[in-house]
Amino acid sequence: MNFGPIFLFLIAAGGVVFVALFLNRMLAPRKPNPEKLSTYECGEEAVGSPWIRFNTRFYVIALIFLVFDVEVLFLFPWAVNLKSLGMFAWIEMAVFIIILSVGLAYVWAKRDLEWIKPDSDEIQAALRQSSQTITDK
Amino acid sequence: MIISLNHYLVLSAFLFCIGVAGVLTRKNAIIIFASIELMLNAVNLSFIAFARHWGDAGGQIFVFFSLVVAAAEVAVGLAIIVVLFRHKETINIDDVNLMRW
Amino acid sequence: MNITYNLPAIGTQLVLGAGVILVLLADLLTGKKNRDVAYQTTLTVLVLAGIICVMKWGSAGAGFGGQVFGDGFASFFNLAFLAIAFLVVFNSPNYLKRNEIDHGEYYMLILIAVLGMTFMSSAGDLLIFFLGLETMSISLYVLAGFHKSRARSNESSLKYLLLGAFFTGFLLYGIALIYGQVGSTNLADITSYLAGSANPLGGYMGVGLALLLVGLLFKMAVVPFHFWSPDVYDGAPTPVTAFMSAAPKAAAFAAALRIFYDPAISLGLPWDKTLWIAAALTITLGNFAALAQSSIKRMLAYSSITHAGYLMIGLAAGNELGASGMLYYLFTYGFMNVGAFTIAWLVNRRGEGNYLLSDFAQLGSRNPVMALLMSIFMLSLTGIPPLAGFFGKLYVFSAGVKAGLIWLVVIAVLNSVVSVFYYLRVMVIMYMREEEGLKDLEKAPTVAITAILCGLVILLLGLFPGPLLDLARESVLSLL
To answer: Which burial class, exposed, middle or buried, applies to A41 when counting CB atoms under 10 A from its CB (0-12, 13-18, 19+)?
Structure first.
């Protein structure tokens, strides 16, 4: 294959972006004030720094998604070739999916699909506290 | 210009070396991990190129499995890094030094 | 498309795989109360897999179009992995409860690791080998960090993971290059390519084989790829260390024999010269580092590096005696190490992360049976006849002499003499050193049974080495 035109296209595309940004800089009036320099959050006042640590629960959820997402990869070539592969391949894939479901059941039973883990100590303490206050009232 | 097998292999070797350099020079455990992923994916590129060269599906199948292995490794790796972070409040590998040979 | 699947070829693996699911579900259903069900299921699965392995010994043949082999070689190693795993699991509950990490996942992960190892030993294709290796490694990464609340365990796990994944990259690159040269990842195709080629290392092949070897040497913890192992062994929970120092090492050697042990290959490659240097360095470095340790766990870690070096002599020799000697050595070495580590954690009295040789003080009078067993393990690791460790070394060394590696064997023998010092130091401490305020050992019947079993096996295989060696020789013949 000849990739020359694609290379030219890439250069042209880069050039367009550069020219657009450069012209904008040259032509636009610049009268900054504090209101203009603040972060635009759909009209809301921005509160605090965006550079905070993410909750580690994001990682756990993302990891669970990632693993199942990638495992499903095997389904595509299998589905395309199912007719020629025959019964044994069907059973193999059934076993594979059962193993995946057991994994999902495990995650579910360990309550890792819920955002707040009900069995973590702090949550339990907080729950006890709040039910205490309710009964006190 | 014709893109031949060697072009892919050279690109793959370059990517692999970038990954190795990343592992050897960076201090952040997650960046190191990303560099390792880069190494694995560079190898995958080689596999695909060779599979195309030989007209054989074996290399592509290998890529499937190596992707899944990489995903499992990432899942375990990030979990370990999260646990480490809960202990040390850092993921700089220079601070992981309780044991020294 | 007609592929003979031949399920009996992977009978052991099927049992283990089903066992993993079973243990996971059993623990989910009963785990709230205790771990007994998971524990008993795991032991049952290991025994069942062992029975299948013995029943189908070497007769199952190739399965899945030559992707896996149920030959004698695979059976031999599978039995070794299962035996080691059984002994480790058998005495684990005590340790897990003592350290408050009594989770059902422990048993599942051990089973998964064993499953990976069995695929490594029976692989007929680099793909299966790679998958087995990763299945084993990933579960070991988790097991090393199983003690979540201890920083040392986290550290051990992170180091193992980062370095392991790094070297996986090299190993995979090696496989890719071999595939690029041969056009197949099947071991039989690769062997016939190497045998039929005028310049076997030409093209991508030389680099590919070298990178593949680097990946394997890392798993064996051979110098210069050993640096991870003392730290990882030190930080991991001790039963896991016992498991890691015995089984994965055997699995890596099994895979190396599978891939590289063939006269056609070993004749054409600069095999012995490469491994010569690695073996000599490994033995010497491991030995002298072990001399300097005050922690029994680190001492055993360095000693396991040394033993990997001794095993390398068998690999470098590349002859039948060397290979069968390695099989014998690996089988018996597992029992010595599991026994020694098990007694080490029972004796330890300062808590995890503080294993000292001085914990063994007065063990001779406090608990004569344990002291005797520990002495057996130490003497066997040194290689004193008539214990099993002696014959392992003897076979491997004589294979080295036969292959003309005289100087390497001389270095190894001299190092064995040095190793007497640190192994016997444990015995000296047990029988000679007086110390104040020592408590009695915790009563732990499973630990005692494990140690006694290990001791008996070492004694019996040392007194009657013939049958096991014959079995090892037969197994090696099935490789060709």
So the answer is: exposed
For residue A18, the cross-strand partners are none
State how beta strands C61-63 and C68-70 pair.
antiparallel
- Domains of chain A: total: 1
Q: Look up residue C297 and give its amino acid.
A: K
What amino acid is encoded at C244 in this protein? Answer: M
pTM above 0.80, yes or no: yes
ipTM: 0.95
Q: Does the residue B10 lie in any domain?
A: yes
Chains meeting C at 3+ CB pairs closer than 8 A? A, B
Is the Cα dihedral C118, C120, C122, C124 positive or negative?
A: positive
Both structure tokens of A38? 């603040």
Q: Does C152 touch chain B (CB under 8 A)?
A: yes
CA dist B8 and A71 (Å) reads: 27
Structural domains in chain B (count): 1
* CATH (domain of B38): 1.10.287.3510
Please report whether residue B44 resides in a domain.
Answer: yes
Domain hosting residue A32, numbered range: 4-136
**Cα–chain center distance at C160:** 16
CATH code for the domain in which residue A8 is found:
1.20.58
- How many beta-carbon contacts under 8 Å exist across B and C? 121
CA distance B96 to chain C (A): 6
By three-state DSSP, how is residue C425 classified? Answer: helix
Q: Does A112 touch chain B (CB under 8 A)?
A: no
Per-residue pLDDT tens, chain C, 480 aa: give them.
456 788 888 889 999 999 999 999 998 888 777 788 899 999 999 999 999 999 988 787 888 888 898 888 999 999 999 999 999 999 999 899 888 888 889 999 999 999 999 999 999 999 999 999 999 999 999 999 999 888 889 889 999 999 999 999 999 999 999 999 999 999 888 888 888 877 777 788 889 988 999 999 999 999 889 889 999 999 999 999 999 999 999 999 999 999 888 755 555 566 667 788 899 999 999 999 999 888 899 999 999 999 999 999 988 888 888 899 999 999 999 999 999 999 998 888 777 667 888 888 888 888 889 999 999 999 999 998 889 999 999 999 999 999 888 999 999 999 999 999 999 999 999 888 877 666 777 778 899 999 999 999 999 999 999 899 999 998 888 887
Amino acid at C402: K
Comparing alpha-carbon positions, the chain B residue that sits nearest to A72 is B68
In a domain, B101, yes or no: no
Range(s) of the domain holding residue B85: 5-93
